[in-house]
Write the structure tokens for this entry.
Amino acid sequence: MNENLLSTCELLNRILLRACAIKKKMCVFLRGCILTGLAIIALSAPAVAGTVEKDVTDAIDSNAKYLFYMHGFAIEQGGPRARSYDYSGILKELAKRGFVVIGEERSRVRNDVYANKVAGQVGKLLAANVPAKNITVAGHSKGGMITMLVMSMLANPEIAYVNFAGCGKEGSGFEGYLQFAQNRASMAQGRLLSAYDRSDQIAGSCKPALDKMSNAVVTERVLNIGGGHELFYTPKPEWLDILQAWAERRQQ
């Protein structure tokens, strides 16, 4: 009888162990299904105002206001100047103002190559029926120069653009905009605000390029905020307000 009892206990133990193993596998399977489902939902959900994206997602909200913002060369270059450049903070502050913000830290890349990438991203929005009046492309320094290149590539009169300190002064080593003025400025269409601070020792007026943008609506402003070229390294309300107003078509 004891032997029968032991056999019965062993059988029950084996059954319990097998049941526990099946239960464990089921839990792992269900957890995987849940995580996969959540990932699919996240990918398919349209970007909403107040978010920052590195790229245009497949789920596009045609009613949202999209703002591309590109940083300057300092981040590509690295070093102390890059560390003082609060690009992520700038993107977050712009998102708080009601935009779907598109921006990423670039590695070193040619202006025209990156401009072609951004033009393609904007084209994706337009193909998804986002009104051109809901799209703004902006940038600082090298990002500002890329902005003007995008403007010449898309040639869409309804898109807004902002170039902060993207035209280097003579002798600064950043006079690439003069080549743009000669070769591509006449192709530009859209509404452009070009602005720099009076205290900036690196960047100044874009007049040689702006004068050739006969098919665009252009405005140039000299700011008196202070801080030089580094003014746009941090999310200061003084210049963020200007960018927001232009993107919302409140200043034309």
The chain has a mean pLDDT of 87. The longest strand covers residues 190-197. Residues 2-44 form the longest helix (43 residues).
